[in-house]
Structure formats: C-alpha cells, structure tokens
Specification:
By secondary structure, the protein is α/β, with parallel strands linked by helices. It has helices at 42-48, 95-98, 108-112, 161-164, 170-181, 197-208, 221-230, 256-262, 288-292, 308-320, 338-347; strands at 2-9, 16-23, 30-39, 58-59, 64-71, 83-86, 124-126, 129-130, 144-148, 152-155, 190-193, 214-217, 234-236, 246-251, 266-274, 297-300, 330-334, 352-356. Helix content is 25%, strand content 26%.
C-alpha cells in the first residue's frame, strides 16, 4: 500500500475534499503513475452530481498526466520514468476496439464509470475499506493513480504535462469529432455550439482541417473572443445570427432545445454531431421530414470517435507545430485549490482548469 492524497466526493452533489488514502500496488495490467497534472472536465462534475452511474464515495479525475512510478508484470509499453498522458479505458477485445473505436467499447460503462477492476488489480482504500476509484481507468484527482496499458500514452519528456493533460478527454473529443468522425474537408463549413474546452478544440481542429466558415455560439463573450483568436470566422450569442447552410454542426452544450433548433441550420446532406451530455428525455421534438428529405444525418460521438494511442500523438504533432495552442485555454491551480478550480469551471470563467500535483519527491 502507498499513502496518497486524493480528492474524495462522499455523496452525490458533495464537495471535493482532499484526504489521505491508501493505494494498492499495480496489478498485472496496471501502471502506477505519479500524477503531475489533471484537467477538470465537465464530465467530472456530472459524475460528482450523480448523473452518471458512478459509486460513492469516489475519486474522479480523468485527464491525468504524470510519470510512471511502477508497472505490473504484463505491462511492456512503458517503464518507470516514462512521461505519460492518461485517457479512457476499454477492453481491447470487442469489435469496436478492433476497429480502433474504443469509445464505443462494449465495456465502456463498467470500465469508465463503475470502477470495475480485476481480482488482482490494486485499488483505493480508506480506513481499511475500499473506496470508489478506477474512474475512466485512472481516478487522477490524486497524487498517484493506477492506470492501464490500454489507456496510457507515452510522450516525450520535453513536453509540458500541465498543458497536454486535457488531450486525454476534452481536447481529443472536440478535435477528434472534426478530424476523424466528421472528417471535415477543406472549404466545408462548421458550426460549433458551445465554446468550452471541447468546442474550442473543435474550432482549432477545423482550422487544421482548412474548413471555410467556422461559426461559434456561446453565451460568454470572453469565450467568443477566444474563439475568434483561435480561428472562428463568426461568433455570436444568438442562434438566429449564427448563419445557416452548415455542412457540419457540432453540439457540445447538451441543451436539447438548442439542438432541435439547430437542425434547420444544416445544409443539404449536412451532419449534426452530438457531443454533449444529454438528459434521458424522449420528448425531444424533431422535424423528421426536414432530416429525411434533405439527406441530413445526426450522429452521436464519444471521445471524438478516436483511438487515443493513434490520435493523441497526432495532436501532439499539431501542438508542436503551433496549430493547437492549448495554453490559451488553460489556467493552472494547485491541487489544494480544487474547490476554486471547480468553481471557475462551473461559472464559465475558465475554459480548462488544470490541477497541479506537487509530488516531485515521489
């Protein structure tokens, strides 16, 4: 057992509280990572509030980045001292995983939300009792986390972990939707609903794809200003002034009324990509004739529809080339200031808060 600090959420809606926990040694497929940084994602807050099937008390955090401290007996892809980013977990055996679409893994829910672990895996303990962990195969709101060979991506040691940590979820979701799932072509038009980390990552990816018109809708003026800096050609807080005839619309808001209203903004054969977190409400009214008669498509997208092992290195290449200026989205906070960082995320004041863990003696 290793003593660690971790941010525990005791019950749905409770605050993040940093406590001392015990972390078991890595199992055969596990990798012990000394966490240096972890982004705060909107999904962490949805899980905190009990809107996804997680167990409580639990440790969240799923945009971890750090240094490998130890590896299990079956791990060959990394070794102690390697710098890594951590993404979501998948089984590696199902059809989706074989197709390099692990976001649609048949075991996605148990491996990422339910904290399911193998009989020989290390896990989190508090006072001699197990506590919820393994969230997204990592639970990285902690000084140390146990990840897996399939959700750890080795990176060069000269790269800034505090800047690249969000690649593991939010950035790859927005960028992957544009570059992989939608495969946006030069000159095509893209509208992004919501200018959070996912939406702004989609904007940067649209620029990389050489899209034509890039429109962004958001209610925060400072985020719209940032969208313009990142390459958006139209920014607005009013859907009526967004424009129309878009080849692609990407919704990151999860606002069902906005989604319904946006369909009329699609061009012939245009595609609406659903990337946000949506309530389970079957009452959403859609004009099916306007979808069918114009050859429009609506698709769901999880984690950008990408394989992190393949896609994260591509994103790093774009970052090195200056085409993915992630530092413009990020504000760092010491781990002890997690409450302040969460509040900044919830208010919209900060696009992507990143927690910095001070464990360099580990």
């Amino acid at each position: 057992m290793r003593e660690i600090e971790a941010a525990v959420v005791e019950a749905p809606g409770a605050a993040f509280r940093i406590e001392m926990l015990a972390l078991g040694a890595p199992g055969p497929d596990q990798i012990l990572v000394a966490i240096r940084a972890c982004g705060i994602c909107h999904t962490d807050l949805i899980m905190r509030d009990g809107h996804l099937p997680v167990t409580f008390p639990s440790v969240f955090g799923h945009e971890g980045a750090g240094i490998v401290a130890a590896v299990g007996t079956d791990v060959q892809s990394v070794q102690p001292g390697d710098h890594v980013l951590i993404s979501f977990h998948s089984c590696g055996r199902c059809g989706a995983c074989h197709d390099h679409q692990p976001g649609y893994c048949v075991e996605f829910v148990p491996r990422n939300f339910l904290g399911v672990s193998g009989p020989d895996d290390g896990r989190l303990w508090r006072g001699g009792a197990p506590i919820g962990g393994e969230i997204f195969g990592q639970s990285a709101f902690a000084t140390h986390a146990l990840a897996h060979a399939r959700n750890v991506v080795k990176i060069d040691r000269d790269l800034p972990l505090e800047i690249l940590a969000p690649l593991g979820c939010g950035v790859q979701t927005g960028a992957g939707t544009v570059l992989e799932t939608l495969n946006v072509q030069p000159g095509e038009s893209v509208a992004v609903l919501g200018a959070g980390a996912v939406g702004l990552s989609a904007v940067m990816a649209a620029v990389i794809a050489k899209a034509g018109r890039i429109a962004v809708l958001d209610r925060h003026q400072h985020r719209l200003a940032l969208a313009s800096v990142l390459g958006a050609t139209v920014v607005t807080d009013d859907l009526a002034t967004l424009g129309d005839g878009f080849d692609h619309i990407i919704d990151t808001t999860g606002a069902v009324d906005l989604v319904a209203a946006s369909i009329d903004k699609l061009a012939l054969r245009g595609t609406l990509a659903l990337v946000g977190a949506y309530p389970g409400d079957p009452r959403l009214a859609l004009d099916l004739s306007a979808i069918m008669s114009m050859g429009r498509k609506i698709i769901g997208v999880v984690e950008g529809g990408i394989d992190p092992q393949r896609f994260i290195p591509r994103l790093i290449d774009h970052y090195r080339a200056g085409a993915l200026p992630l530092e413009k989205l990020i504000r760092t906070y010491p781990f002890a200031a997690i409450a302040e960082a969460v509040a900044a995320s919830e208010s919209g004041a900060v696009v992507k808060p990143v927690l910095i863990m001070d464990n360099r003696s580990s």
